[in-house]
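Quick one before lunch.
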Amino acid sequence: MIVPKVLFVCLGNICRSPTAEAVFTTRAKQAGLDVHVESAGTSGWHIGEPPDPRSIAAGEARGYSFQGQASRKVIRADFGNFDYILAMDDKNVEALKETSPENYWQRIQLFLDYAPSNTVREVPDPYYGSGDGFTRVLDLIEQASDGLIAVLSK
Ligand code: 4NP
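Model of the 4-nitrophenyl phosphate complex:
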């Protein structure tokens, strides 16, 4: 049994991709799917920091755990190591492709490609916005998580 490896990526690895890690880990487990899940940032601005307290508060309110998470930057080895490298927005995709050898570009996708019924393509950065940006992030990530789980369960 091969366990798929999924890496969620955003800019700071303190808001969106940690939320994706928490949500997808929980929902995959509930679906009986065995996966390896991590998250990382294209910047190194918050290395070693736990997720943003606003992300934790919004996520925990829906029952997700952020236990043990700490921000790290994407490294070159990630491209060979992860089967799915799922970015929150187009800028993340661009930054990833700048770092990745071209033979791994097919692994890099927008996470919301797995929420096709939604016309939104990117998970908006909630960092500088108002509080409800964090629940919006959760809504989008829950949809895409279920889409990805459906694909991986086939
Ligand atoms: P994230 O959000 O990419 O979803 O983790 C951000 C976190 C920090 C910053 C920007 C976005 N920042 O500018 O420090």
